[in-house]
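agent> fetching stored inputs for the adenosine-5'-triphosphate docking request
agent> found them:
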Amino acid sequence: MIRVQGLTVAYGAVKALVDVSFEARTSAITAVLGANGAGKTTLLRTISGLKTPVAGSITHDETELTAMKTEDIARMGIAHVPEGRGVIGEFTVEENLRLGALTAKLNAKQSLENQYERFPILGERRRQHADQLSGGERQILSMARALIANPSVLLLDEPSLGLAPLITAQIMATIKDLCASDDLTVILVEQNASSALRIADHAVVLNVGHVVANDVASVVAEDENLRQYYLGMVS
Ligand SMILES: Nc1ncnc2c1ncn2[C@@H]1O[C@H](COP(=O)(O)OP(=O)(O)OP(=O)(O)O)[C@@H](O)[C@H]1O
Ligand SMILES: [Mg+2]
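agent> prediction call returned; pasting tokens
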């Protein structure tokens, strides 16, 4: 479980997050929703130690993360799939995965086979350069690379970005399956509220750095006020 309490994060004088609190439960998907500039990416970057908060606490089970180094946070089993997917286009699928195994100091052969078994499309494309993959396949590759380290927490930054609706639905179904099969704590950041709410258990809505809703996903999905003013969902 990830517990965020009273988190405030700033870039100079600009506060990107103000007094943000919520919990992301184990074996559940917590969606973090909000418009451009709401602070979603900043939240994930702060959880994974890439950004230091001004105030507040983030704990994983009982361990405080805010004072830890990024690599130690990753070693604790917190995997971050960044916005834009973070795969290296000039590397093949296999080279991208090997890089993930290397970073996690794992036996590459077995780790790669596990991911090819889980995602057969990556096995078929193992010799292709990542920039030849479709957007959906690249998203699968970036998730597979994160999963190589057998994380307990998966932070996903806008996995649906730039994907057609049908591919988005497939990616969301994959995330739901992963959460269940690997007992993952998933924090799913999305501007695409309707897709995320379809698979989420819980939802946190941010508006210019402030939490405006923190509730069961189905409750958030049916709230007219949230849909209209914060989620850009047309009823
Ligand atoms: N490196 C930075 N330097 C200065 N300000 C930043 C930086 N990164 C983000 N910000 C500001 O912090 C606020 C939150 O940005 P953030 O990227 O976290 O939002 P977001 O919800 O991820 O937006 P998007 O949906 O566009 O990805 C914005 O006002 C943004 O301009
Ligand atoms: Mg973002």
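agent> quick read of the result: The longest helix spans residues 165-181.
agent> awaiting further instructions
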